[in-house]
User: Fold this.
Amino acid sequence: MKNIAIVIFILTYVLLLILPKIRAYIALISASIFVLLGILPIEKVVDTVDWNVILMIAGTMGIVSLFIESKMPSLLADLILEKTPNIKWAIICLSLFAGFISAFVDNVATVLMIAPVALNIAKKLKISPVTSIIAIAVSSNLQGAATLVGDTTSILLSGYANLNFLDFFYFQGRIGIFWVVQAGALASILVLMYILRDYKQAINAIERTVVKDFFPTILLVGMIILLIIASFIPNTPATINGIICVTLFIIGVVKRYLETKDFQLVLKALGEIDYFTILLLAGLFIIVGGLTEVGVVDDISKLFIRFSNDNIFVIYTIIVWASVLFSAFIDNIPYVATMLPVVASIANTLSIEPYILYFGLLTGATLGGNLTPIGASANITAIGILQKDGYEVKASEFMKIGIPFTLSAVTVGYLMIWFIWI
Assistant:
């Protein structure tokens, strides 16, 4: 049964790579095969799926869609641009702002919000927007690991390791991964400053975006506050974070309907939820549960340990930099979903706290996507925006920014996590 599970898993991963548009269906079909063959007993299926993660992703995506439609991010970007002296600092500030937004909003959504602002500036100054939009995309990916709701990978980690919102800031008497990401961001700013050293054109006054509905902003801020409050309340339901996110989204949708009486707007908001990602995760939870059930996860962890000769630093280094390499070419969601139980098994075998390996995995997998234009959905979105505007972006052009940006941020994070958690 173990060999059959391995073959199905490898085939699933290959299909996920070559058929990305139907990967949700691939994961669900593979999960069904796992159950039908008895690799994962049917009575364990419901418990294997992390419903807190599923609900959090759905609720957060819904709230973010309302937030974007309110045009608040565009207004904030306009206010920032009013304070910048030239195009170099405008791009840097927009990148930092994209990073800040991305710590609480999906990376792709962040790029869709901020990239049009950069395009507008480029057109007014008659310069290429390629560098600025790539910078926005890679900055968005960087900050995805900063908070519990910053990226699907963060939500996966929080669900698996039972981390709450505040644990990303301060955990077990140590600074959390949020501050590690900020240190990486500072290092990456130096890279951007060098790349943009010749961008000295002044910025003319721009017209401010008008925001008429502030309620989605209240929902987003309210979600963060409630997630923080929930972290202080003992014995809460296992799905408390998901319940908070979904409930606030429902409130936002109901309010919109009561104001407009237009059910199409409700359907539009519901349609903004990425159901494919949710179905993909549900399938992956079952597949990984099956691999754990038949002992494949333990076998993989033993290979790591044998290869590293029981050396924790070697294992940690492999996990970080292998995650960077893999995530440069494959989707980090299935990768992280697969590796979390492997990392936990490694830590259990070595009798060490797993958090150094968890945070190393998250850092490498989240930032590794910045190495290539296909390594992260935000990068693909940014390239698509540029192509639609008539700009063809070569892989080499993207990597001139992506590689130094990634290496500087990951190196800082890699060293900080080791010295904080060893």
